[in-house]
Amino acid sequence: MRVVVVGAGIAGLAAAHALRGRAEITVVESGDRVGGKLRTTPFEGLPIEEGAESFLARVPDAVRLARHVGLGHDIVHPATTAASLLISGRLRPLPPRTLLGVPTDAIGLIRSRVLSPAGLIRATADLVLPRTALPDDPTVGGYVGARVGREIVERLVDPLLGGVYAGRADAMSLRATVPQLTSIMSEERSLLLGAHRVRARTAPADPTGAPVFASVRGGLGRLAAAVADASAAKILLGTTVRAVSRTTAGWRITVVGAGAPGEWDIDADAVIIAVPVPVARTLLARVAPHAAAPLAAVPYASVALITFLYRAARLPPGSGYLVPPREGGVVKAATFMSAKWPQLSAGTDATIVRASVGRAGDARDLERADVELAGVVAAELASTTGLTGRPAASRVTRWPDALPQYLPGHLDRAAAARRALPAGIALAGAGYDGVGIPACIRSGEAAAEAVLRADDAVRAGHAGR
After folding, report:
1. How many angstroms separate the Cα of 290 from the Cα of each of 248, 411, 451?
2. Which residues of the chain fall short of a pLDDT of 70?
3. To which CATH superfamily is domain 2-36+220-298+407-464 assigned?
């Protein structure tokens, strides 16, 4: 079986790896490297992430794949995950044991002093309020706000969603974004009690004390490269797919690049499209218009990551902080990289801080030139953390249209698109099934199984005639 995978992000690479030994695989990537948003590059001689910097370790997909490709002994965990929130200009500890911002530890919430007295009283009203009538797929903010009040939405849920999705709680689908809350909405009256039960059931205490997050020694770019190598796929970098069309025997992928003049074709029995939704929609428009149509309702948000190196600087304790939108300013989150991942700068006096900028629907700050943006962010970091002295180096990494926004009804639209796909084409990636690395790996592997099943069905049909 011949399979072409369009896109060499971690979803496409996971699909190629899952097909090894069962298909002849060609991966087509328009960029000059594999990995997509897994990108580790030197910064002042240190291997620093320009994209994703960790993955969930308690979700098995990424850990399993890392082990399969020989990186099991290189899995590392953060030295600290104790984050803070910027509330009224002061850093407050993020309350412990929340479920994406929904508190499950009342004592920890009170001690954090994140909520005002009125906000605490409103949150406890959830325990006595009658069941809330909601649409089938409400927004995260709509459900959480109705149960525990707007202050928890604005000070806890919004900054956490902004860090993961660059989105706003009042726009994001509950079912697609926080599926853990879906069962609470349908089965429980109280959100607080339901969240406590779900967290106790799904996140039991780890007897080894291992944190919930992990990375790979040397950076996540190593993971992408190792998966690409282990897939044994033919990988065409600098190659853009112009069209996908049917043939009597299967599919024809028209590409340009890879050092060849003009357009040329690759014939295949199946195609896995593992690129951002707008690109996938363009490729599907002619061969599967009914699959392309639902994808028009998946917008994307742009972000920028600004990395700084300071010499012998002192930072507040913890792994960094999140900024609720109502606090204003440019920075939405900051990670103290050298504190969270001390191996990055071991043996040096370097202090690495990375800030994130950009929210869905508000890209004004991203219009600043690199020098201006870095200057504004450095000033905000200094004001918030007490950092003194100018950074010795800075780097601005821009990710235009990087993060899909799961609006209400997203899961239904993704399912409708997949149902409308012709046999032999599958979709994978963050635009459908989750933005985290484990979710993308799972999506790519599911796409591989889908095209294998379709091929089996075709072969069975031929054998029966």
Report:
1. 21, 16, 19
2. 202-210, 461-465
3. FAD/NAD(P)-binding domain (3.50.50.60)
